[in-house]
Structures are given as C-alpha cells and as structure tokens.
Amino acid sequence: DFNNALEEVHSAFGVSEDSLQRCVEDGILHYSPTIDSCLRQTAVDVNVVRSAPGARTTSVLLHGPPRSGKTALAAQTALSSDFPLVKVVTPYDLIGMNDMAKVQHLHKIFADAYKSPLSALLLDDIEGMIDWVPVGARFSAVVLSTLRALILHPPPKDRKLLVLATTGELSALEQLGLSRAFGSKVAVPALGSLQELGRVLELADALDGQAEREKAVSLVADAAGANGGQIGVGIKDVLMAVRRAKVQGGGADAFAGEMERVMLENRF
Amino acid sequence: DFNNALEEVHSAFGVSEDSLQRCVEDGILHYSPTIDSCLRQTAVDVNVVRSAPGARTTSVLLHGPPRSGKTALAAQTALSSDFPLVKVVTPYDLIGMNDMAKVQHLHKIFADAYKSPLSALLLDDIEGMIDWVPVGARFSAVVLSTLRALILHPPPKDRKLLVLATTGELSALEQLGLSRAFGSKVAVPALGSLQELGRVLELADALDGQAEREKAVSLVADAAGANGGQIGVGIKDVLMAVRRAKVQGGGADAFAGEMERVMLENRF
Amino acid sequence: DFNNALEEVHSAFGVSEDSLQRCVEDGILHYSPTIDSCLRQTAVDVNVVRSAPGARTTSVLLHGPPRSGKTALAAQTALSSDFPLVKVVTPYDLIGMNDMAKVQHLHKIFADAYKSPLSALLLDDIEGMIDWVPVGARFSAVVLSTLRALILHPPPKDRKLLVLATTGELSALEQLGLSRAFGSKVAVPALGSLQELGRVLELADALDGQAEREKAVSLVADAAGANGGQIGVGIKDVLMAVRRAKVQGGGADAFAGEMERVMLENRF
Amino acid sequence: DFNNALEEVHSAFGVSEDSLQRCVEDGILHYSPTIDSCLRQTAVDVNVVRSAPGARTTSVLLHGPPRSGKTALAAQTALSSDFPLVKVVTPYDLIGMNDMAKVQHLHKIFADAYKSPLSALLLDDIEGMIDWVPVGARFSAVVLSTLRALILHPPPKDRKLLVLATTGELSALEQLGLSRAFGSKVAVPALGSLQELGRVLELADALDGQAEREKAVSLVADAAGANGGQIGVGIKDVLMAVRRAKVQGGGADAFAGEMERVMLENRF
Amino acid sequence: DFNNALEEVHSAFGVSEDSLQRCVEDGILHYSPTIDSCLRQTAVDVNVVRSAPGARTTSVLLHGPPRSGKTALAAQTALSSDFPLVKVVTPYDLIGMNDMAKVQHLHKIFADAYKSPLSALLLDDIEGMIDWVPVGARFSAVVLSTLRALILHPPPKDRKLLVLATTGELSALEQLGLSRAFGSKVAVPALGSLQELGRVLELADALDGQAEREKAVSLVADAAGANGGQIGVGIKDVLMAVRRAKVQGGGADAFAGEMERVMLENRF
Amino acid sequence: DFNNALEEVHSAFGVSEDSLQRCVEDGILHYSPTIDSCLRQTAVDVNVVRSAPGARTTSVLLHGPPRSGKTALAAQTALSSDFPLVKVVTPYDLIGMNDMAKVQHLHKIFADAYKSPLSALLLDDIEGMIDWVPVGARFSAVVLSTLRALILHPPPKDRKLLVLATTGELSALEQLGLSRAFGSKVAVPALGSLQELGRVLELADALDGQAEREKAVSLVADAAGANGGQIGVGIKDVLMAVRRAKVQGGGADAFAGEMERVMLENRF
Ligand SMILES: Nc1ncnc2c1ncn2[C@@H]1O[C@H](COP(=O)(O)OP(=O)(O)OP(=O)(O)O)[C@@H](O)[C@H]1O
Ligand SMILES: Nc1ncnc2c1ncn2[C@@H]1O[C@H](COP(=O)(O)OP(=O)(O)OP(=O)(O)O)[C@@H](O)[C@H]1O
Ligand SMILES: Nc1ncnc2c1ncn2[C@@H]1O[C@H](COP(=O)(O)OP(=O)(O)OP(=O)(O)O)[C@@H](O)[C@H]1O
Ligand SMILES: Nc1ncnc2c1ncn2[C@@H]1O[C@H](COP(=O)(O)OP(=O)(O)OP(=O)(O)O)[C@@H](O)[C@H]1O
Ligand SMILES: Nc1ncnc2c1ncn2[C@@H]1O[C@H](COP(=O)(O)OP(=O)(O)OP(=O)(O)O)[C@@H](O)[C@H]1O
Ligand SMILES: Nc1ncnc2c1ncn2[C@@H]1O[C@H](COP(=O)(O)OP(=O)(O)OP(=O)(O)O)[C@@H](O)[C@H]1O
Ligand SMILES: [Mg+2]
Ligand SMILES: [Mg+2]
Ligand SMILES: [Mg+2]
Ligand SMILES: [Mg+2]
Ligand SMILES: [Mg+2]
Ligand SMILES: [Mg+2]
C-alpha cells in the first residue's frame, strides 16, 4: 500500500557508506588550496572526538553559497573518519512527517548514535530541516529547538559523537541562535578565480583538449569582467555547465554561454 | 457517495498524455522567435537528463506574466520528450487535501516517478500549490519545504527525472528561496509588438480576412500608444479576445475593444 | 435534532431559480444606461460559454460599493441565460463549516456543475466566503486558494461552465491575487446623479405623486451639495429609505431625512 | 456532573422577557431629549420590520461609551415591540464554547427565529462575542464572519426579523467591516451637562432632598471644569456613585468624590 | 498515577480561609497611611455588595509594582468581609490546563459562587492567568475574553458577588480593554520614603535594636540618593532583604547591601 | 519499541548527583575572585531557604555569555547544598514532548520537590526550555507562563524549595517578564584579562610547561589587541582550545590559533 511504497523509498535507517558515496559522486577535485584547508579543519574535529578524553561531543558547521560543495566535503570527512557508525540525515528523509514526528526521528538518530562508542552524524542542509523560509523569517520552532538541544547535549558516559552539519544560510542560523551551538565553523567558498576554473576543467577532463579549455576560460573571463573579475559559481554548477555544453554538442562557446547564464542568475 | 463523486473528477494517477494535450488545446502558434528559443532551452534539459550519465535530476522553471503560455510550453516540452513516464500536477489536484495530505501526494508522485528509469513531472502553477497569497506573503510552509526537498533530492541509482515547473510569481519564489532550487529558468513573455499581434491573428485565422486583421492591429496600435507602444497581453487573452469579438458578431472594432479592456485591466 | 434543524434551513443542494428570484425581489429598475451596459457585458460571457467551441470556462466578477445591486444583476444574468443548471452559493451556506468542509462543499458544487454540459454558478459575496477582514488583512487562505484553483481550472471535455461572482471589496481581491483569476470584470456603481434618483422614485412609484417626488429630489440635492453633488447611495439603500419614510407616514421630508442619514454614514 | 452544573447556569434557550427585564433593572430615566430620540429611531426599525412587505430583515446597532445605557435601551425597544419571539444573546452565553460551537449556537438562534413569522434578536456586546482585543486588533475571525453573514442574510419567505445589537467599540466594528452590515446606527451618549446630572439625581430620588442634590451638582461642576465642563460619565456609573455614597453614609460630598474618581479614570 | 499526584497538589475546590491566610503570612504592617486608605477603599466595595439592593456585582482591581503587597491586601479585604463564601484563584491553579479547560474552570468558579447568596472571589495575578507576555503583547485571547464576560455579567436574582483582582501590569490590562471591566481600581505603591522604611524595620523588629536600624536607614539613604531619594522597593522585597542579611549574620551593612542590589535591579 | 528506546535514553526521574557531577566534569578552576564571589552569592540563597522560617521559596538566576561556566557553577551550588533532594532539568529532557506534556513534566518536577521538606531544582538553560528564538522573538508562551507560575508559587506548608536556573539570554528573559520572577540574579562572566587566561592554563596544567604557557598568553595578547585587550572567551571554549591544540600536536602556536578563531567568531 501507500505507506509501504514510501518506505521503500526512504528507509529511515541503514543510511550508510552508500549514501555518503552518492554525496561525492563526482569526487573531490583539488582545484584550490582552500579545499585542502577545509578538509584539514574538519579532520581536527574528527581527532578531538576520537582521542581527547574529556570532549565527548564536537560539532562543526560547513557553510557556503549554493552548490559550492558543502555536502560533498562533509561526506568526505565522514568517510575518512573511519568511525564505526556514520549516518546521514537530509530534509528529504523528513518529508511527510509532522513536526512531532521529525523531532522523534532526530531524537532517535542521536539516541542510536549514543549506542555506539564512536559515531558521526551528517545533518545535511539544516535550514531545510527546520523549514526555513527567508520571507517573514519563518521556520519550525520545535525542530529548531530540538536540533539545538541535541547538538548541545553531552552524550552519555563513554560515548563520543561528531556532528557534521551543512547550510547554505549561515546568516539565518545566526539570527536563529543555532550557529552558536556549533563548536566550530568552516566556510566552503564558490569558485573565485579564472585559474581555479581552468584547474577544474583540467581535473574534470572537460571539453576537447587543453586549447579548447583555455578558450573557454578566456570567454568566461570576458563575462566575469562585468562581475568584477569574480566567477562566483559553485563547483556543482560548473560541472553541470560542462554537461549542458556537451549535450548541445558545443565546445568552449557553449560552455561559456552556460557559465554566463549561471553568473547572471547568481547576481540576483 | 461524496468521496466517490470527487474521485471521479480528479483521479490522482493516470494523469497522462491526454491531460498534457488539454494544456495545449489551441496549439503552439510560432508567432515570434522567442517561442522557438524557449522550446530550445527546455530541450537541453530534456537531453541532459536523457543522455548525461552523472546528472540524474534536472529541473527547469518556466515563468512569465499571467496567460502568457507557460503551461502550454511546458506541456509541449514534456510531450516532445518521449519519456516513458510523464505526469502533470496542478493546484486543482490538491483541493480538499490538508497540508499533510498534499505533502504525501507530492511525495508519492516523485516516488512513483523514481520507479521508471526516465520520467518527467510537470508541476503546473507552483505558487498555487503552496497557497501563495501576496498580501502578507502567506503560503503553506510545509508544502513549500517539501517541494524544495523533492526538487533538490537526487533520485536513486539508475533513475533520471526531469522536473518542469511553471509560475506566474517568479519574485515570490525568489523571496521564498524556492527558485534557487531549480537548475535553470526560462522566461515566457507576453506579446510585445504589434507585429507579433498581427502574426497571431494570421496564424489563428482570426477575423474576416487579412484586411480586417490589419485594421484590428492598427486600432490596437492606438490603444497601445498609451501603453508606450507595448501590448503586454498574453497569448491566452489574445485568443479569448478573438472569441469574444466573434460572439458579438463584431469584426476588427469589437476585437480592438476587447483588447483595450484587457490592456487597461493589466495596467493595474 | 440540532443537525437536522440546521439542514432544514440551508439544504446544500437544490439551490435554484427560487433563490435566484429572491435576489431580484424588487426587480431591476432601469434607472440609468449603466444598468443596461452591465447586463450587456455579462451577456457576452454567457454567449462565449454557450457557443464558442474552445472556451470552456469563463468567469466574470461584478464589483461595486455596498448595496449597489451587484447580487441582483448577477442573478438576473443567470436567470436570463437559460442554462440547464444554475446554482447560487453565499457565505450563509458555509456557516458552521470548518475550512476543510467549506473547501469540500465548494469543490462538490463545481464537480456537480461539471456533470451538466452547460451550467452557471453564482458565487455571491466572495469576500465573505474567504472570511475577509480588512484590519490586518485576514482571510481564510485555504478557501481563497481553493476558489482560485476552481475558477482557473478548465472543466472536463465537453463541459462548459460560467462563473458569476460578486464582491464589495475589489481592492482586497486584487491584493489577494484573486481578481486576476477572473476572465472579465464588470463595475456596478451606486446612484450618482439626482436625475437617476428621480428616475428610481418614479419607476418604484414611491411617495405620493410626481410633485412630492420632485420635492424629495430637490431636498436631497441640498444634502448632496456637501457631497460634491454626488449621491453615492446604492439602489438597495434608496429603496429602504422609501420604506422607512412610508412607515413614519412621512412624505418627501421623511425620505430626504433618511437619505441624508445614509449619505452621512457612507462618508465614513 | 460538571456539564450539568454549567447548564443550570445558562440554558441556551428560553432566554426571554425575564432576562430583558433584568437589562433595564433600574428603569429608563428620561433625563434628556436624546433618550427619547434614541427610542424613536429604533421604533422605526420595529415598524419597518412589522409592516413593510418587502423588507424582511432590518438591523440596528446601538453604540456609545462604556456604561452609557446601550443594553437597557436596546432591551426596552425589544420589550416595547410586542413581537411574539424576542431573544437576548450575550458573550456570557458563549463562554466555554470553542469558535465552532459559538458559530453553531448563533446559527441556531437565527434558525429558531426564522421559525416565527416575526421576531427580534438582541445581540448584546458584540465586540465581546468576537473576542475583540484592541492591542494587536485581535478577534475571532470565524465568529465575526458568521455574524456578518447572519445579519446580511435575508430570512426565508414570510419571515421577518429585527436584529438589535449593542457595542462599546464602534470604531473597531468599522475597521472589521461589521458595522457596514447594519441597516442603521443609533448613538447612545454618556451624560453631558450638569443639568442632565441634576435631572438624573432627581428622577432617581438620590441623596437627601433637593438641597443636597444641588450641592452635589455644584461640587461635580468644579471637577467637571478640568474636563472642559463635560461630565462624560455613563448613566450606569452615575447610579453606582449614588450607591457608593449611600454606603459610606455620606451625602453630596461622598457622591461628588465618587464622581470625581470616575471622571478621572475615564480620562485615561 | 500521574494525574492523581497532581490533584493532590492543587485540588480545584476547597480553596479557603487557609489559603487566604498564607497570602498574608507576614501580616499587614501599617507602615504608612496609604495602607489604611487602600483597605478603606476596598471596604466600600464590600459594603456596596453586602447592603445595596440593586448592585449585584462589584469588582475592584488592586494594581501596583512587583512585590508591593497587592495579594496580601486583597486577601486581607476578603478575610475581613466575613462573606460566607470566599475563594482564591491563581495562575498556579491553572497550570496544565489548556485554554478551554481554564475557561471552564473559571466559569465553574463563578457558577459555584452564584450558588451562595453572598460571595467574594480573589483573582490573584490576572496577567498570569491570561499568559500575558510583554514582548509582542501576547496573551490568551479566550481566557481574557472569558474573564471580561464573567466580571461584567450580572449574577442571577438574589445573588451578590464581589470580585477582587490583583495585577502587576495595569497598563497591559488597559491596552487589553480588561481594566475597563472593573468597577473600581486601587493603587498599591512600593515603599517611597526613608521614613516608611524605618517604620517597616521597627514594626518587623528587624536587625539588632533601634540604633542598628537607624544606621541601616541612613546607609540606604546614600544609595537612594542616586535614585532621586526614592526607595521604590516593595514590602515583600524589604522583608526578604531583612532575612538575607540575617542569614549572612550581618547587621545594618548587610541589609543595606541587599537593599542596594534590589534597587539596582529595579532600575532596569 | 521506539518509545522504549527513547525512555532508556532520558528517564524523566532519578536525575541526581550523577548528572550534577557531569555538569562540572572539568571541575571548577578558581582562576579569578569572581568565581568565589558567584559561589558566595548563591550560598546565601541556599542558607535563606535552609534556615529562615518564613521564606519558603527562593530562586536565583545565573546568567552570562555562552560557555562561561553557568551550568557548572549552578551544579556546584546544588552539590554543596547537601539538600536531601536535588534535581536537574534541561531542554534535552523535554525533547519530543508537546507543550502540554512539557508543562505537565515541569509541574510534576515541582510537585515531587514539594514532597521533600527541603529540595533544590536546577533548571538548566531556561531559554531552551521555552524554545526561545531571537528572530521574531518567538517562544512557547505556555511553557513560559508555567515556569513563571511555578517559580512564583509558594510551596505548601513546611516545604522549602531552592530554584537555581541558568540562561545565556538574560535580556530575552527580561523582555519576556520572566527574569522578574527570580528573587536574585548572579552574573557569570567570560574570561576577561590575560592574567586570568594564564591562571586557567596553569590550573589546567595545559601545554608543555610554564614557558610554553607564557608564550601562549603573549600570542593571545596580540590577537586581543584588536579586541580592545579583552579576551571575552568562556572557560568552556578555553578548555576546548587546549584540547584542539593538543590533538594537532601543536604547542603555544596551535593554542593561540584556536583562541584567535574563537575570538573572531565571538565578535559576530
Ligand atoms: N573540491 C570539491 N569540493 C566539493 N565538491 C566537489 C569538489 N570537486 C568536485 N566536487 C563535486 O561537486 C559536487 C558538489 O555538490 P554538493 O552537493 O556537495 O554541493 P552543495 O554545496 O552541498 O550544494 P547545495 O547548495 O545544493 O546543497 C559533488 O558532486 C562533488 O562530487
Ligand atoms: N506560442 C504559444 N505559446 C504558448 N501557448 C500558446 C502559443 N500559441 C498558442 N497558445 C495557446 O495559448 C494558450 C496558453 O495558455 P496557458 O494556459 O499555457 O497560459 P499560462 O501562461 O499557463 O496561463 P496562466 O497564467 O493562467 O497559468 C493555450 O491554449 C495554448 O494552446
Ligand atoms: N437596476 C438595479 N440593479 C440592481 N438591483 C436593483 C435594480 N433595481 C432594483 N434593484 C433591487 O435592488 C436590490 C439590490 O440589492 P442587492 O442585494 O443586489 O445589492 P448588493 O450590491 O448585492 O448589496 P450587498 O453589498 O449588500 O451585497 C434588489 O432588491 C433588487 O431587486
Ligand atoms: N435613560 C436611560 N438609558 C439607559 N439606561 C438607563 C437609563 N436610565 C436608567 N438606566 C439604567 O442604567 C443602566 C444602564 O446600564 P446598561 O447595562 O444598559 O449600560 P451599557 O451601556 O450597556 O453598559 P456596558 O458598556 O457595560 O455594556 C441600567 O440599569 C438601566 O436600567
Ligand atoms: N502593609 C502591607 N501590605 C501588604 N503586604 C504586607 C504589608 N505588610 C507586610 N506585608 C507582607 O508582605 C508580603 C507582601 O507580598 P504579596 O505577595 O502580597 O506582594 P505582591 O505585590 O502580591 O507581590 P507579587 O508582585 O509578586 O504578586 C506578604 O507576605 C505580607 O504578609
Ligand atoms: N571556574 C569555573 N566556572 C565554571 N566552569 C568551570 C570553571 N572552571 C572549569 N570549569 C569547567 O568549564 C566547563 C563550563 O561549562 P558549562 O557547561 O558550565 O558552561 P555554560 O556557561 O553552561 O555553557 P553554555 O552556554 O553552553 O550553557 C565545565 O566543564 C566546568 O567543569
Ligand atoms: Mg548540499
Ligand atoms: Mg498556466
Ligand atoms: Mg450582494
Ligand atoms: Mg451593555
Ligand atoms: Mg501577588
Ligand atoms: Mg549551560
């Protein structure tokens, strides 16, 4: 029946390495030193949880503009931690639950994590979990309050927990008093320079050869001029522009056209 | 009984080619190059979904002023895609459901789509689905949040999904943070120039012969003067003005009178 | 019992010619060319629905100041249409229903209309149906959203439907985005000139003879001076002033006194 | 049990002459021509309902400052009408009902009235019925909307109904769009002049003899000086001041002291 | 079980002389003529209810700054009235009830009082009963509206009722339109002058002898300088400062230190 | 099943010395005279409750910036009181309860405390209990109102109760009118001077020896320059910085880097 049908689709538990892998489907391209720096920072959190005796919960918030790679970097951190228990929760998992059911679901996720001596939870897109809407600053107060209490709560004796969370709305979380509940914060920026763009195209082996890639970068450079030289496009959008250009059978021109469209939309 | 009676009227599933056809009942008149450009853009989305290996969801938002032909163009795109599964959802389908039922209905629509390897969903009039009301910026937060999560969620392995959506309230969706969830956006404008109007009348074989049509265009031109030369009337309203004139047994004068009335109402 | 008692009072269905007749109890006095023009406009809608093949729904909104005769003119249009199925819905019919029940009631009214090949619905006082309150711009969002979806929805194949609606709050409906759902709009004004007033008194055979009527008009003229010469009183209030004067056994003076009181109250 | 206990206290029906009498417990003192004028105005409404063939509902709103005698004058009008069915509803009758129950109660009151060919309803303190609160302009939208629909609804064939309502918050009802639903309005003022005060004391046979009453009036005159010569105290408060003075065994001084206190409190 | 456990704690009825006594646990210190004046004013209300034939309800509101002795003075009035039935209601009694249950509880309290020919109700801390919160002016509209209707309602024939109420938020009650429902108002001030403070210390036999008390007063005088010479501390806080000083084993200095802390906190 | 699983995690009762101990896991470092002063103030409350005959409830609010040690100091006070019954309540304990259940839980906690002649309750993080959200000043009005009533309510005869509460949002509690319900308030500051920082490092035996600690302090001094010489970091964050530095294998530099990051984040 209907409920069974839905359960097939998102079984609440057993979220695991498989779903973490799907978050980094296109791999992590090391197109800039920032990428390494982000991963180094989250690694400290992993190690504090693992080794320091007194620090039982540590929580870290990855924040940045849309499609900048936040989810992929958080998932990569969790995968590299080698913790025995790692789980992902996304807004999609909470669809169709009323607020009370969401709260119980999240509570249970943490309670289950407390059963393992060492675990990590990836709370992906937390503004989505609290149904944040910018206009009128609306959100689910009870889910917000639950997340805050769960993140702040020290786990029981001999249990250690790392909370990794991502958000595209840092300033919202600041207004809501939720960002303050996190032990540390890591910024995940969009692509900035043309050099970074060139490196992405190279690492992704996009377009037909180096010459075409250089042409693409220089075409984007023209458009970026209007943008103060900044690209300001997330890695996920860059990789999509590569795909859209390919489908149109086009080369550097098609790619630059797609990039221009995204840059224009981002400006609003 | 009552529930049966309602079910006859809108059976949730089995929405199909038939209902898509009804969305383009008056066909697509190619009265301007913009029409072709719109259809070319949505075709790229169709092809990215169909052929690119890594891009499993693509979503496109068709936006424009009232009665400009958004629904017809989205339906035409879906019809031309030849995807094995294509479904339409409109606010009418959600009448009489409470918010939770709407959420489960939408969730099920997506879950069903995930069962087919390649499918397209047409979410028609999404501001209507979230009960958007401009005054006081009111809306259903939970339906909004569900739509956002569904559109952003990557489908399961080996599944591909194209989401086509239409809206007459782009700026509302921007405020609500929903437009950002779409991979690309396509603008569907109202009729602009008198030339376009003439072409519509010709393609629709409206009024009695070319002379009468030309007279109609020149009468509208006078009214458009007050409008800065712009017509600013959607294709759907133009075709209705043709019908109203016909019913009154009138020719160019009756048509121009109807156009004038619509142009006046649009100004407010 | 209680529910039975209520059902006696407003049986949801079977609303018919009888209730339409009650809406025009005092007949339609043709006291001004505007009256004819209003009825001519709504007749076009009737004919578009009846005869044009492609236009399956047409909706028209009659709007104007309080007691100007909106309901009577809409009812007269429906009566003259000779459509096989004509129904009236008013806020009174929805009393005691919660929002969900109202939505289902309205949905059923439309679903029933879709069963007849040609029907008309008169939605009387739609701001009352959505519980509109000017202060704080409050209203029932779900009823509003349902009305919008019902009015916009094309009926099933081979079904034609004319929606006639009345409102005393056009600007509210504009703010709420509901007026835009209507295909056309017709303004129903209050009495403007003294000449119109004289014509009403004559057609209604009010007061004792022509001399007394002329005296009444000239007494009202004095009061109207403060009003910039405008009367600004709806036909329904004029007919009530006639009755109040009669009860007091008074003639022109009593009538003018009542008119003055109404004009004063209207000014606020 | 508990519900029984409550039912003893306010049995919903059978409200009758007895409860009307309690509203004018201290009689109607004809201390000013305004009192007669108010009663004359409401008598026209009574007669329009009784005798005019076409006017089936008439509604009149008595408004004025706190404790000015609104309820007593409305009750007196109903008592004098000699209509076969007269009922009173007050906010007290609605205590403990949720909004839906209030709506059904009011609906039933009107439905019962429709069973009699000629009836009057006294809706006492309608701002209390809709839970009006000035700060933030809060109120029960559904009760408001129901009252509006009930007052506007024409009764069934051959039924006539007079609605008498009282309010201390006319401007609130104007903002809420409810005052507009009434056919006519009557203002009930507080005591204005010292002469009126003297007349009240005399008619109520207050204090010890004429000399003491004159002294009282002249003492109040001093206090009223600060008030611009206006008393601005409702008849109900004046009669209470008489009682408080009596309890203290005091004469003119005690009375004037009490009046001064009330005048001071009214100023805020 | 749980509900039993709670019932032990606050049995809704049988609130009586015992609980009144607890409200004046530290007695009434007659440290200023204001105290006598307050009690004299409330005594008039007691007598009006007792003896005047026509005045069946009288209600009085005691208002003042926090901890100024409002509850104690109201309780003392009720104790001195010697009415056969006296009951106290506080926000604590309403804990755990939803709004509807609160309304029914209050309704029952009044209904029970109507069973006795002569009774008094003490509604202690009415802003607490309506869940008043200053920020955003939030409160329970239905409880507010019920209290208003109960206080305004005349009791049945041959029943007399005195309503005593206390509040620390007079201006809130004014905004909410509730203060206007009371027949009279009595202000209960905080301690004003140093002389009053000295009298309190003396009457309470605080500190070690007269010399220490005089020293205390003069130390407080210094701190009060910054306060414009005003103390502005309620009697309840003064008596607590006496206790805190005693616990610290300190004399005048400790007392003055505590007073200073309270005066500082009051300033914000 | 699910409910059992949750119950394992937080059994509502039996919260005891063990959970108090966990609140001061890293002990109390006496790094400044303020610490002693705070503990001395709360000790007076303990003694007033224990020994003064008439003061049956005393309540104290510990407030300060995030992570300044509020919870640890309140727990230490409770531990040192040697009261026979001591309980802790935190927002975590209330997760998954609806507002009514929270209210009943809190009510029961107090009712249970009233059973013991002498008890202390630690309400930790009360802004979390009322779901306080700064944006839009949202909160649970019913929980707020319940806490206020519970804190103000005098316990039954021969019962004494000390309420210890902590908050990081004093100004919110002031706006909400809750801080006023507390008998006294104690401020818990963050680390201010470099000297205090040096003392913490020493008492915690952090870093490798005195020289490294001095280097750390002087590196932090540079960063603090930008901060006006103020550190403004809570003791909990300082101890975490010590751990993060240790995990990175770093000495004074790593520690100073972590401190700098926290100081930067605190500035927003
Ligand atoms: N250096 C990188 N950092 C992050 N992601 C990368 C990097 N290189 C490649 N990717 C790929 O880019 C995509 C990043 O998408 P991701 O969903 O993580 O972005 P996001 O910021 O979470 O987006 P959203 O704002 O929609 O949540 C992934 O497919 C990932 O495999
Ligand atoms: N070039 C065109 N583009 C779109 N529609 C066209 C075109 N030519 C003719 N039509 C016809 O015009 C009508 C467009 O109506 P449609 O419902 O798509 O407009 P819409 O913008 O969705 O209106 P609404 O704002 O009410 O949702 C359809 O009947 C369609 O068959
Ligand atoms: N020319 C006319 N147009 C409309 N109504 C007329 C006309 N002549 C007479 N009448 C009578 O006037 C009355 C108009 O009342 P009606 O209820 O239609 O007004 P309304 O504008 O709908 O009022 P409301 O604002 O209260 O809804 C009816 O009784 C109708 O028979
Ligand atoms: N001329 C008068 N008009 C009205 N009431 C009068 C008059 N003379 C005496 N009374 C007495 O004064 C009292 C008026 O009280 P009433 O309850 O009608 O005032 P109200 O304006 O309805 O007060 P509230 O604002 O509290 O509703 C009644 O007891 C009535 O018998
Ligand atoms: N003259 C006095 N007036 C009032 N209370 C007095 C007086 N003298 C001594 N007291 C004692 O002072 C205390 C006053 O406390 P009470 O609870 O009445 O204050 P309150 O104003 O109601 O406080 P809150 O604002 O918290 O409701 C009581 O214990 C009472 O016995
Ligand atoms: N002097 C001190 N005062 C308080 N806590 C101290 C002190 N010295 C060491 N600590 C330790 O510092 C930590 C303080 O953390 P605590 O949870 O009490 O802070 P908090 O202010 O309640 O934080 P939050 O704002 O997150 O509620 C505890 O682990 C405690 O053992
Ligand atoms: Mg993401
Ligand atoms: Mg459309
Ligand atoms: Mg009407
Ligand atoms: Mg009244
Ligand atoms: Mg009190
Ligand atoms: Mg804490």
Q: Any idea what the CATH architecture of the largest domain in chain A is?
A: 3-Layer(aba) Sandwich
Count of the domains of chain A = 2
According to CATH, the homologous superfamily of the largest domain in chain A is P-loop containing nucleotide triphosphate hydrolases
SSE run of chain A: HHHEHEHEHHEHEHHHH
Largest sheet of chain A: 5 strands, parallel
Average pLDDT over all residues of chain A: 88
* Number of continuous helical runs of chain A: 12
Rg over CA atoms of chain A: 20 Å
For the biggest β-sheet of chain A, the strand order reads 2-3-4-1-5
Low-pLDDT windows of residues of chain A: 1-15
| Multimeric status of the protein | homohexamer
- How big a fraction of the residues of chain A is strand? 5-15%
CATH-assigned fold name of the largest domain in chain A: Rossmann fold
Bound molecules: adenosine-5'-triphosphate, magnesium ion
Helicity level of chain A, as a percent range?
Answer: 40-55%
Gap between N and C termini of chain A, in Å? 44 Å
The helix/strand class of chain A is alpha/beta
By DSSP, the count of extended strands of chain A is 5
CATH class assignment of the largest domain in chain A: Alpha Beta
